[in-house]
Amino acid sequence: MQTQLTAEWAATPDGQTAEAILRRCVHCGFCTATCPTYQLLGDELDGPRGRIYLIKQVLEGATPTRATQQHLDRCLTCRNCETTCPSGVEYGHLLDIGRKIVEERVPRPLGEQALRWLLREGLTSPLFAPAMRLGQMVRDWLPAPLRAKIPARRDSGPWPQTPHPRRMLLLAGCVQPAMLPTINAATARVLDAAGIQTLVAPKAGCCGALRFHLNDQVGALDEMRANIDAWWPYVEPADGSAPVEAIVMNASGCGVMVKDYGRALRHDPAYAERARRISDLTRDLSELLPALLPAWQARLGACLPDGVPRQLAYHPPCTLQHGQKLRGGVEQALTALGFEVHLPAQESHLCCGSAGTYSVLQPGLSRQLRDRKLKHLQTAAPQAIVSANIGCIAHLQSGTDTPVRHWVEVVDEALAAAAA
């Protein structure tokens, strides 16, 4: 795609990045066929190709409008279009640049500003955990829309204390410890079962994705730097002890962000090299499965214990299959352990509508995508639906009575039952 950036953007890092991405686009429209919002709305400007044109126009000097902002807002950033694109267009990075520019030039209504501030500051605040506990205490008396956002409280169980020579860091996350603490505890236990000790850096916080996708990119970069500082003593121990093998992510939305630290901080002379190192060390939990399976299989024996849900429907999050390009690993591993895994024959590549804060900011579109996804997931009448990202899990659970869990929780349950 030929483009002529204005002088304002031509010499800037964002402008140069955007121009390189734009030049790879060949207008083919393959991306439109797999875009969730285009399928729902049927508007070219609510598909990747149309949004690319909008961003291109702004970079060439056009004045963005409120309509421009709304079309960009409606994008889920699922990156399905990147998987489909034959030309390798990095649409997600282009969208981040376009949103930042439009945000600076188009004022939002006060209500939108307030909601975005609340999400940006509230979800990453130390007050989120007590607020969640209070919400869970009164959950049964809350209005249905609010109750759907608050998962029922569950006991996380013990965190293993056995030291092992092999050690890995785990990012606890900003909302996961309060909303679904069972995921982190289950992760620590299944790694312990394979002879790996799980460490959590006390000062590590939000991965930065929440602020980044709400157009507070400066704040997101600060959160990235804070995490790098928190992790560095484990990556390069000053006392000469062995460094951790990896930084494990059990929320694929966090994983795709941390793997991007090297690119996001590439122009920061103080953090560029360390950020690249952190990204190189980061692994989604599913990437460890080939090495973990033998230990788990030895504990489980020939078949799964009674009482463990065997029939599972699997929803691969967009941040895993499109963002990190990881496909097939979870399903294959669960099958090898004895589970019967159903991957929907239709639309398994499409977003469930969670997309971070999207379910709050675009509730109508989000619910349509959730219900569409659940329809396909439930065709095989599974005993449980499993996924790999807390946002997807909480969002899907809000639309069904079928239990929705992280896949690591069902593995942990099976290992515990076998031990008992």
Topology:
Blueprint: H1 7-10, H2 13-22, H3 30-33, H4 36-41, H5 48-59, H6 66-73, H7 80-84, H8 91-105, H9 110-122, H10 128-137, H11 144-147, E1 166-170, H12 176-179, H13 181-193, E2 196-199, H14 209-213, H15 217-235, E3 247-249, H16 252-258, H17 261-264, H18 272-281, E4 282-284, H19 289-300, E5 311-314, H20 318-323, H21 329-336, E6 340-342, H22 358-361, H23 363-377, E7 384-387, H24 390-397, E8 404-406, H25 407-419
Helix pairs in contact: 2-8, 5-8, 6-8, 13-25, 19-21
Structure report:
The model has no long low-confidence stretch (mean pLDDT 93). The chain starts with 6 loop residues before the first helix and ends with a helix. 52% of the residues lie in helices and 7% in strands. The relative contact order is 0.10. It is of the alpha/beta class. The protein has 25 helices and eight strands.
The value of Rg in angstroms is: 22 Å
Cα end-to-end separation: 61 Å
Q: Report the major sheet.
A: 4 strands, parallel
Q: How do the strands of the widest beta sheet line up side by side?
A: 2-1-3-4
Number of strands: 8
Binned strand content: 5-15%
Report the mean per-residue pLDDT as an integer.
Answer: 93
| Number of helices in the DSSP assignment | 25
Low-confidence stretches: none
Class per helix and strand makeup: alpha/beta
Question: Quick one: overall form?
Answer: globular
The proportion of residues forming helix, as a percent range, comes to: 40-55%
